[in-house]
Design goal:
Elements (H helix, E strand, L loop, with lengths): L3 H5 L19 H16 L3 H16 L18 H13 L3 H8 L1 H9 L7 H9 L5 H6 L7 H8 L1 H5 L2 E2 H18 L4 E4 L1 H4 L4 E2 L2 E6 L9 H11 L3 E7 L20 E10 L6 H8 L8 E10 L5 H9 L2 H15 L1 E3 L4 E3 L4 E2 L5 H7 L13
Parallel strand pairs: 4-7
Antiparallel strand pairs: 1-3, 2-4, 5-6, 6-7, 8-9, 9-10
The structure holds cytidine-5'-triphosphate and manganese (II) ion (3 copies).
Length: 376
């Protein structure tokens, strides 16, 4: 942990893509508070305030020291009045009354529960809240509600899905994905992305990028993989989205736009051989309910053309805030448009090709940031 004065000499950028943010967070008590505030504003669809708190959280995560006095944040970007008030409260009282208020707020608590269900977003939560529903149990019990196929799966596997995915589970699923993909396309490249690529040891899902380096493209690959898992009884849920990519189309300027890759949001059944303890054997002998020997795991599979692979990797590695800042930096500092498919230089009116993440950072005039330093 660095001392404050040694650090202050270097100017901190407002963009997280110009900072290094590892998983060592010296300011967790502040960033947790900001994330609650941001989430509450997200539930209220106040994007400006939501982003203000997310940016502040992200900035404090990148500091190599713990903030203990207001002086410590002097001269730092992203520290607006709302943010400073909360920092001050936490420094003085050990906690923030505004954050406590949110945590006790009926609407926040209900939305927090609803959005923890796979397939449920702010819009659906709003609807349920207006109907007077407050908990996941109440939603489950209401048989008049029309649930989407995704939400039905979300409730069916709720307990498994809210319990986080471990690194060991990610490795086990990774083997399954690689083996299945390579049984159809031996040269295919399968890469784990998302939080696990950033070095996290837990996640809410496991993200994979799949590409074929050869000249051969196989539009059917994803369908073949899914069909095999269905046949093997490993697929609990899947929603395949076909590619909507149009060549020559300018990258999307929206900060949180969905990309156009063929992809699949799935729930896989991961078998977990249990330790053979006597209770299990007894219950089997007695014909009692069998012990569940699997866990439902959320898996995202994304198929990319090889020439877009570096862009897809950068986008899907995240963090979400790091990606937002990369695109904001490209637009505002370089007059370029970046998305998960390409980088477009508006001054030169050309697409900039990249075969690696390093090349994308170089095109943007940015120092390279390692995946584990992107936990913004
Ligand atoms: N992403 C994306 N397009 C989507 C969905 C996700 O570009 N349609 C990006 C997100 O911006 C994020 C990364 O892919 O940076 C991984 O998304 P997600 O799995 O939601 O988040 P993680 O960082 O992996 O965190 P978690 O452990 O919660 O899964
Ligand atoms: Mn993820
Ligand atoms: Mn997530
Ligand atoms: Mn994901």
């Amino acid at each position: 942990e660095l001392e404050m004065p040694a650090f202050i000499a270097t100017k901190v950028s407002q963009y997280s893509c110009q900072r290094k943010t590892t998983l060592d967070n010296y300011n967790k008590k502040f960033t947790d508070a900001f994330e609650v505030m941001a989430e509450n504003y997200e539930f209220k669809e106040n994007e400006i305030f939501c982003l203000e708190f997310l940016r502040a959280a992200s900035l404090l995560k990148s500091l190599p020291f713990s903030v203990t006095r207001m002086k410590d944040i002097q001269g730092l970007p992203c520290m607006g009045d709302q943010v400073r008030d909360i920092i001050e409260e936490i420094i003085e009282e050990g906690e923030s009354s505004r954050v406590k208020e949110v945590l006790n707020d009926e609407r926040y608590k209900a939305f927090k529960q609803f959005t923890s269900v796979f397939g449920v977003g702010v819009k659906t939560s709003e609807k349920w809240y207006r109907m007077g529903l407050r908990t996941v149990e109440e939603v489950k019990a209401d048989k008049t509600l029309k649930l989407s196929k995704m939400q039905k799966a979300g409730f069916l596997y709720y307990e498994d899905l809210v319990s986080c995915v471990s690194k060991a589970e990610a490795d086990a699923v990774s083997l399954i994905v690689k083996n299945t993909v390579c049984s159809f396309l031996p040269d295919a490249l399968v890469t784990i992305t998302g939080g696990f690529r950033r070095g996290k040891n837990i996640g809410h899902d496991i993200d994979f990028l799949i590409t074929n380096p050869g000249p051969r493209e196989d539009d059917e690959l994803l369908h073949k993989v899914i069909d095999l898992w269905k046949k093997q009884g490993l697929l609990l849920y899947c929603d395949i989205i076909e590619s909507t990519f149009v060549k020559e189309q300018l990258p999307s300027r929206k900060v949180d736009a969905m990309d156009h890759f063929q992809k699949c949001f799935a729930i896989l059944k991961l078998y977990q051989p249990r330790v053979d303890n006597s209770t299990c054997n007894t219950s089997k002998k007695l014909g009692m309910a069998e012990v569940k020997d699997w866990k439902a795991i959320r898996v995202d599979l994304v198929i990319t053309p090889f020439e877009q692979y570096a862009y897809a990797l950068l986008g899907w590695t995240g963090s979400r805030q790091f990606g937002r800042d990369l695109r904001r930096y490209a637009a505002h500092e370089r007059k370029m448009i970046l998305d998960n498919h390409a980088l477009y230089d508006r001054r030169k009116r050309i697409f900039l090709k990249s075969g690696s993440e390093e090349e994308i950072f170089a095109h943007l005039g940015l120092d390279y940031v390692q995946p584990w330093e992107r936990n913004a």
